[in-house]
């Protein structure tokens, strides 16, 4: 009997301690946290300006709240915002980091490294560049976008508003490009549109964390398909017709002759015809398509070679041919010399419901 | 009047259902003693007369007639006589030679007939359930399992208050060490009184009291009982308890029913998977709510995080208080629905479940999502087999919830680890609770 | 009763728990290319040590190595068992401190470290108090719950890889002298020693354990190669826990959860707790053999208390790394000396038995 009582008292004490411990450190409930979805960062005169877009939940629905602060570091600015809010700011759910173009041109290396380091910000967060001042952009977003909380992020989500002309680059990819010898990335550039839309201007070529050039949305499409992201469902406009790319596949061969890298790439595109203008034959469409894609690709390659930024990850194909010590200088000494034999083969998989005359 | 009879009469003097009748058999006067509440007197006398008439016709001696009536043991002491009267036997005293016979008379019908199970539902299986009478129960098992390997040992336990206990096992499949161990426990604790199963398991079998999981798996169904016999387990019947106690209890009992095997194999597997999922959901869901809401919101998707935050907006206390509060309400509802007559039970459930829940949400006392979690948990809790197991599950989810409120998702894991560790540590006379009954019986056989 | 598959499962999951934290980082830091060479070399050494150890154990028969050394003489016992106890103790400290640190980095930013470490010790202590057979049964339950989770997320971790990062395949042998490579042997040395202690309580067959060890090879390889193939060597070498970071880059759109790292991490932690409980139990056995006056129950409570105190005294991550490095000498001594001595002592006693 005594034993039983001891047991009961023991359990009661354990439960009591557990209850006390529960209050020992502050775990804030989800409704007392502000979860910003978009963060804008710009740098002027050695001071970071941080803009947070915070969906504010109430029982009626979601309101967007835009808050700005300046600070010596990004974190300081965030803390300042947190101080001024009634609930604390957690960057746990940050989905998009929007960088002002000027800051991107100066170099993002430090910020990206600290984003990777911090446990709050997920490495999956999307990075984008804003081609105007952050203030007007966010004002525009607040004014024009339906208050759903995640709207801006939805533009980039693969199963929502994303389209294959948009490059989709996450923090960890940017971080990788900073350290990697053979790979750079492209970051989408956006701008406020007119009628409540966000305009997509193309992609920035980022080399070692700095924006060095820009490619057009059409080139980005090619970039995406080259890198194996689905370019599916995209409508490609030509003089005579527009087609939808259904699938694309790639074959490549690489070799190095006397220090000059040679790369042979063949991309096979399967398309379906959506719209035609005048009389066209499938042959002419094929020719046209191949010509256009060739032109775009060589344009992009030229940009990449002159800027010594390997957004296509061409160096990846030579990793087994060049020793590691030489890979280090791939961008400077090999990439500009790269000879590329690029072929595009298009196949019209079907012409829709109607016959092509 | 003999001294022994006098003593018996004194002992029963405070009992109005005690009867003492004078009669005469083959010319000798006899006294019949017994309890009216246990013996149906009129048919008893009629049957005695039939015996008597037959005896006169066949001209047998008095001694032979005594043998016909029942056991005529001279050596039986006063205490045993007293016990057998309490047990519903008829005591016949022959005044002439100071001898007596204890006879099995026609008893009063104090047992209900075999009915369908009340606390367990059977899908496509045998519908008869155990009753209070121990002999009936053993008979039901014998009907279910017609084998010459079936062994039944009956013990009467307790001196002050007697109780019959039957031990049934399948010879050749059951672990004989285990049975010897139980028999030894019975022999050792023969004189202890058992009023309930708690005492039975502690005093007689020596199992620890503070065990969350009972060492017996209880079943009302002869089919399940027979199945566990075949699996090498031991059945214990306690008189007046309409249950078979299957020992050692095993974890898998909570998920596997023998009547599942009446379904095709894929359906059976599906049913069992659902039960396992139910148990896991009961343990994890409430903890997950607490962990995700108060400690680790980053694990949620942003859309869900926002909608949860929205439903929680205005709830004045932390998630752990919220969930414990609602769980207490649910526990009260469940307990109340046990207590209430079947006719008003559903009304209370309705008031408790629907109206109270809805009102609590509208009054902003709890969040919508919590009500969903609560309902899912309560439903999932009932998927596992056995009332006791489901109760143990109901309690153990609090461990997970409390730990989750402190350590978030890690707390859920810690709670699950503790539960696993606890289950892993349970044994009954060396047979682990977490084991495969099949493997053991095979190991035993070969 | 034969519990081979329980032992094999335990062996498997204990190693899984150890692999994914420090090992990838150490291997990636040890060489710039051809990472498979150090992995396979380490694995081969591990397999050799394991099979020697098992051979010794089975020559010795149905008893544990404490009895073996005790029989061989007090000197042997001090020479081998004392370092072993110290090693187990150190392993407990590093594992508790490391995993608690990782937990606070990854998911529990506001929970104090002492509380996390406390639970990381309380649960294994509870397991160990319940006895070795109970640890193994618990291991089976935990394995059934968590191995599917691990396999699920492990298979998803291939999402972002680029196979071309495999090249160059051939590297230099310079990794042999790298401190981080020597540290990586923590994975190999820690896990197999418990086999020598369980024997009279839990019987098992050799083959199962060897099979479990071989089944681990893909996990060793991919724990290193997944971060390498996702990030490339030069990026991966900047991380403290490359595998965990590379897991963080995975997105599964249909899953209702966002940071799936948490789930994999939790499963690993549960395996580590089993490792801790085994280590605590083995340490208890050694100390108990040395000082039989101390009751096992009290030892099992006091050893974790000691571990906890030491863990509290370690102020920072760099100190853990330092501790890890000091441990290296002991680790190699243990890894070489215990299997060899077990083998020789056991075969000697077997010969003697045959002769007499």
UniProtKB/TrEMBL annotation, chain A:
Keyword terms: Germination, Lipoprotein, Membrane, Palmitate, Signal
Lipid bilayer topology: Lipid-anchor
Alphabetical list of Pfam families matching this protein: Spore_GerAC (PF05504), Spore_GerAC_N (PF25198)
Gene Ontology BP annotations: spore germination
Domain Spore germination GerAC-like C-terminal: 202-352
Family the entry assigns: Belongs to the GerABKC lipoprotein family.
PANTHER family: SPORE GERMINATION PROTEIN B3 (PTHR35789)
Protein name: Ger(X)C family spore germination protein
TrEMBL record, chain B:
Annotated GO biological process: spore germination
Any Pfam family: GerA
Membrane-spanning residues: 276-295, 315-332, 344-363, 369-387, 399-424
Keyword terms, alphabetized: Membrane, Transmembrane, Transmembrane helix
Gene Ontology CC: membrane
Family: Belongs to the GerABKA family.
Protein name as it appears in the record: Spore gernimation protein GerA
């Amino acid at each position: 009997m005594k034993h039983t009582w001891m047991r009961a008292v023991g359990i009661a004490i354990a439960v009591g301690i557990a209850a006390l411990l529960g209050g020992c450190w502050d775990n804030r409930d989800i409704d007392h946290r502000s979860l910003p979805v978009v963060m804008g960062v710009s740098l002027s005169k050695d001071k970071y300006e941080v803009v947070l877009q915070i969906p504010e939940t109430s029982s009626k629905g979601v309101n967007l709240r835009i808050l700005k602060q300046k600070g010596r570091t990004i974190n300081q600015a965030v803390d300042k915002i947190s101080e001024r809010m009634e609930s604390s700011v957690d960057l746990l759910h940050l989905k998009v980091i929007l960088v002002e173009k000027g800051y991107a041109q100066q170099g993002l290396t430090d910020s990206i490294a600290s984003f990777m380091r911090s446990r709050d910000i997920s490495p999956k967060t999307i990075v984008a560049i804003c081609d105007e001042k952050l203030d007007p952009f966010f004002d525009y977003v607040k004014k024009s976008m339906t208050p759903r909380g995640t709207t801006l992020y939805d533009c980039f989500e693969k199963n929502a508003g994303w389209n294959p002309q948009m490059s989709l680059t996450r923090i960890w990819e940017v971080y990788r490009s900073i350290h990697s010898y053979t790979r750079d990335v492209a970051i989408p550039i956006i701008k406020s549109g007119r009628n409540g839309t966000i305009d997509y201007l193309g992609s920035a070529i980022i080399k070692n964390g700095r924006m060095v050039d820009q490619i057009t949305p059409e080139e980005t499409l090619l970039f995406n398909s080259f890198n194996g992201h689905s370019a599916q469902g995209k409508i490609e406009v030509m003089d005579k017709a527009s087609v939808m790319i259904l699938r694309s596949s790639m074959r490549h061969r690489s070799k190095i002759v006397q220090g000059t890298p040679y790369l042979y790439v063949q991309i096979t595109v399967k398309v379906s015809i959506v719209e035609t203008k005048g009389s066209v034959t499938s042959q002419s469409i094929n020719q046209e398509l191949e010509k256009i894609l060739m032109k775009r690709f060589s344009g992009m390659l030229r940009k990449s070679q002159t800027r010594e930024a390997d957004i296509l990850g061409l160096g990846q194909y030579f990793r087994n041919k060049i020793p590691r010590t030489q890979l280090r200088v791939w961008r400077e000494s090999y990439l500009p010399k790269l000879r590329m034999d690029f072929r595009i083969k298009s196949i019209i998989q079907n012409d829709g419901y109607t016959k092509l005359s | 009047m003999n001294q022994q009879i006098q003593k018996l009469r004194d002992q029963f003097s405070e009992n109005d259902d005690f009867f003492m009748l004078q009669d005469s058999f083959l010319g000798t006067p006899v006294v019949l003693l017994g309890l009216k509440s246990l013996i149906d007197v009129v048919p008893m006398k009629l049957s005695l007369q039939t015996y008597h008439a037959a005896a006169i016709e066949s001209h047998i001696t008095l001694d032979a007639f005594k043998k016909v009536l029942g056991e005529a043991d001279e050596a039986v002491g006063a205490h045993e006589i007293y016990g057998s009267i309490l047990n519903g036997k008829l005591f016949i005293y022959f005044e002439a030679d100071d001898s007596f016979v204890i006879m099995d008379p026609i008893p009063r019908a104090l047992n209900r007939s075999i009915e369908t199970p009340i606390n367990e539902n059977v899908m496509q299986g045998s519908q008869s359930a155990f009753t209070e009478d121990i002999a009936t129960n053993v008979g039901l098992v014998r009907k279910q399992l017609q084998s010459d390997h079936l062994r039944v040992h009956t013990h009467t336990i307790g001196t002050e208050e007697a109780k019959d206990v039957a031990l049934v096992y399948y010879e050749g499949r059951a672990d004989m060490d285990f049975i010897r161990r139980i028999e030894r426990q019975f022999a050792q604790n023969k004189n202890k009184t058992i009023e309930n199963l708690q005492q039975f398991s502690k005093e007689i079998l020596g199992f620890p009291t503070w065990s969350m999981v009972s060492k017996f798996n209880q079943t009302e169904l002869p089919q399940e009982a027979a199945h566990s016999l075949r699996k090498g387990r031991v059945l214990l019947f306690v008189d007046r308890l309409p249950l078979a106690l299957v020992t050692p209890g095993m974890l898998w009992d909570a998920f596997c029913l023998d009547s599942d095997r009446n379904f095709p194999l894929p359906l059976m597997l599906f049913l069992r998977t659902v039960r396992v999922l139910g148990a896991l959901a009961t343990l994890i869901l409430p903890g997950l709510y607490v962990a995700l809401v108060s400690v680790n919101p980053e694990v949620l998707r942003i859309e869900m995080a926002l909608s949860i935050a929205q439903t929680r907006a205005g709830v004045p206390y932390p998630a752990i208080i919220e969930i414990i509060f609602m769980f207490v309400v649910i526990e009260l509802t469940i307990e109340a629905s046990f207590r209430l007559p079947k006719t008003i039970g559903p009304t209370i459930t309705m008031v408790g479940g629907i109206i109270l829940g809805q009102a609590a949400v509208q009054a902003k006392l709890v969040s919508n999502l919590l009500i969903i979690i609560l309902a899912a948990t309560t439903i999932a809790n009932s998927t596992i087999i056995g009332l006791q197991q489901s109760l143990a599950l109901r309690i153990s989810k609090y461990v997970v919830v409390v730990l989750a409120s402190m350590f978030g998702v890690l707390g859920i894991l810690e709670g699950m680890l503790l539960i696993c560790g606890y289950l892993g540590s349970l044994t009954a006379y060396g047979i682990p609770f977490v084991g495969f009954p099949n493997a053991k019986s095979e190991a035993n056989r070969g | 009763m034969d519990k081979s598959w329980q032992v094999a499962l335990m062996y498997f999951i204990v190693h899984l728990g150890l692999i994914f934290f420090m090992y990838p980082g150490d291997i990636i830091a040890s060489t710039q290319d051809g990472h498979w060479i150090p992995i396979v070399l380490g694995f081969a050494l591990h397999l050799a040590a394991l099979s020697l150890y098992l051979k010794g154990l089975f020559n010795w028969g149905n008893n544990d190595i404490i009895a073996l050394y005790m029989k061989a003489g007090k000197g042997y016992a001090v020479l081998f068992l004392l370092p072993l106890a110290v090693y187990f103790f150190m392993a407990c400290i590093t594992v508790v401190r490391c995993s608690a640190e990782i937990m606070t980095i990854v998911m529990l930013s506001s929970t104090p470290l002492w509380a996390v470490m406390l639970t990381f010790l309380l649960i294994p202590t509870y397991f160990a108090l319940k006895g070795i057979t109970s640890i193994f049964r618990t291991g089976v339950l935990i394995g059934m719950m968590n191995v599917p989770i691990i396999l699920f997320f492990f298979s998803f971790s291939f999402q972002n890889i680029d196979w071309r990062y495999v090249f160059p395949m051939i590297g230099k042998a310079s990794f042999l002298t790298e401190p981080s490579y020597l540290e990586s042997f923590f994975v190999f040395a820690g896990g197999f020693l418990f086999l020598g202690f369980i024997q009279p309580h839990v019987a098992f067959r050799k083959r199962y354990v060897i099979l479990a060890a071989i089944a681990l090879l893909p996990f060793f390889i991919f724990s290193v190669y997944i971060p390498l193939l996702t990030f490339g060597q030069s990026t991966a070498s900047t991380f403290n826990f490359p595998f965990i970071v590379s897991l963080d880059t995975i997105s599964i759109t249909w899953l209702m959860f966002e940071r799936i790292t948490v789930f994999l991490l939790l499963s690993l932690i549960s395996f580590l707790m089993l490792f801790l409980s085994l280590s605590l139990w083995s340490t208890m056995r050694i100390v108990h053999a040395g000082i039989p006056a101390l009751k096992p129950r009290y030892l099992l409570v006091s050893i974790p208390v000691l571990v906890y105190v030491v863990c509290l005294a370690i102020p920072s991550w760099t100190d853990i790394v330092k501790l890890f490095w000091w441990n290296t000498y002991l680790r190699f001594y243990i890894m070489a000396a215990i299997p060899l001595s077990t083998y020789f002592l056991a075969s000697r006693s077997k010969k003697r038995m045959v002769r007499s």
